[in-house]
Amino acid sequence: MSLSLSGTVALVTGSSSGIGxxxxxALAARGASVALIARRQDRLDALVxxxxxxxxxxxxxxxxITERAQxxxxxxxxxxxxxxxxxxxxxxxLMLLGPIVGGDxxxxxxxxxxxxxxxxxxxxxxxxxxxxxxxxxxxxVADIVNISSIAGRVAWANYGAYxxxxxxxxxxxxxxxxxxxxxHVRVGVLxxxxxxxxxGSHNTGVMREGIDTFYETTEVLQAEDIADGVAYMVxxxxxxxxxxxxxxxTDQA
Length: 253
Ligand code: NDP
Description:
There is one protein chain. With 253 residues, the chain is of the alpha/beta class. The chain has a seven-stranded parallel beta sheet with strand order 3-2-1-4-5-6-7, with helices on both faces. The protein is globular, with a radius of gyration of 17 Å. The chain is 45% helix and 15% strand. Helix 1 packs across helix 7, helix 3 (68-82) runs parallel beside helix 4 (105-133) and helix 4 packs parallel to helix 5. It has a single domain, classed as Rossmann fold, CATH 3.40.50.720. It has seven helices and seven strands. The structure holds NADPH dihydro-nicotinamide-adenine-dinucleotide phosphate (NDP). Residues 13-14, 16-20, 38-40, 43, 64-66, 91-95, 114, 118, 147, 149, 192, 194-195, 197-199 line the site of NADPH dihydro-nicotinamide-adenine-dinucleotide phosphate.
């Protein structure tokens, strides 16, 4: 049995591309009004139009969520526009690979800023609204889905700083789950393996070559496969909470 999202409001970070884009469409298709958060406004505007053409409701909020004030303003704008917030999908992220020896601390900081700090700011700003929605119709339950990674479960050479950010997301998610689940805000982590998105495109040199080879030789997941997982997690009946969902390409060991 799955719950309709009619009458609910979802906020998806990183919805200008990849997994966030697909997840926003999936939640809108199930009846949620969706706030779209990312920096590239043209992409968000195009997605609003696409969702509206399909009969859904969406609203673009351009924001750099590594800036705490912008993250807070994005949540505020969503609640002002739609009156509530039921579902937060913390998806925005960055993966810059490379050895730690001789690595670039500025790149590590950029990953920490979006993968961890942005997620913390959004969660903190959203929680009062999610706790209120969990007491209210139509579902009397609310959801946080944190998009982590297989890199939050398994460490590899050259993934060190990215591994650190995603292992951190897993630990934070489990801690918050224990803190608030009994208040009917469900908190779950979704850990994808390789998905065809723009994620690898920010890398250069030998790291980019390795990523490109992986994608050329592996039948990877599509963003819609992960969006299906997000939709599954947030449409469970009120008494069922999905704490963890690990989705891998069949082709990737
Ligand atoms: P994309 O690069 O396609 O999407 C990343 C999204 O994050 C973009 O929409 C980008 O939008 C947004 N973003 C980045 N920085 C900021 C910021 N400062 N403020 C607001 N939004 C920001 O990659 P994916 O869709 O693959 O990545 C989504 C999540 O999935 C990430 O957390 C990633 O780690 C995770 N993941 C991806 C896997 C894969 O194989 N693709 C595997 C496992 C996990 P904009 O640039 O417009 O701001």
